[in-house]
């Protein structure tokens, strides 16, 4: 019988329940999907804790891949047997499942060269890296970036993509082991934020200039240091809030620190146009298929082990990408 992980109240990892479910036949515009692998993303914890509200009870996970087994009325772009992947947020919630119904409009056809486990590891992370590197800023060879959580799933992809564009990459990590992984994936310099002042080290590395762009997925704990790491008129990209939401601040602060720019991008906005989303996915898959971007899956969990997976995720025990296998 199909299985699904969901939660009936917000809270810690212990609220997650792995249960039998009825899936049924696809309705108009939907497909039934037999899933093969599911991504484990830090954003999943935002739904579980209520930071991202969802009607309860709710499924969890927004990013997975598998094979179409049935199509509903009006679906013309897919048929049974097609290999597909998807990512989203509220509109794809419920990915922690063995089978599910999903709107065909969110699906991305998966090239034969990309296996299911690789697809689960890179669809959200890779498309995030794609729009960060290709849509957020007009990068030029020689530009520099500061990349927080450089040994995380998104970080490892961003650093490799940045090197393809000729950028200098400075990555922050929490341990020597993570520093070695980050350097192996393209970081020119690493900073251990547990005992080094990030902004001071960035200034030293860049001869006092600072970086063109900061990608900050940590939030509250790193916000001020990130601003202090930017050169004049640099761009601060708030990608996530792993340490908690950023406290309210006076925009005058941006002027005081060098007429800085700040953005908080959402994938839903950068991937809203189907043609642009397809173009970014195609570029991502081509880089991976040709070996220009390497995908390392450091941890695999059974879908029934979501509680432990979330505990490991929040304890920062995962380096790179982690997935659920089915």
UniProtKB/TrEMBL annotation:
Alphabetical list of InterPro entries matching this protein: ADH-like_C, ADH-like_N, ER, GroES-like_sf, NAD(P)-bd_dom_sf, QOR-like, Quin_OxRdtase/zeta-crystal_CS
Domain Enoyl reductase (ER) residue range list: 11-324
Keywords, ordered alphabetically: NADP, Oxidoreductase
PROSITE patterns attached to this UniProt entry: QOR_ZETA_CRYSTAL (PS01162)
Domain of life from the UniProt record: Bacteria
Signal peptide: none
Glycoprotein as UniProt keyword: no
Pfam families per UniProt: ADH_N, ADH_zinc_N
Protein name: Quinone oxidoreductase
Organism encoding this protein: Acidovorax bellezanensis
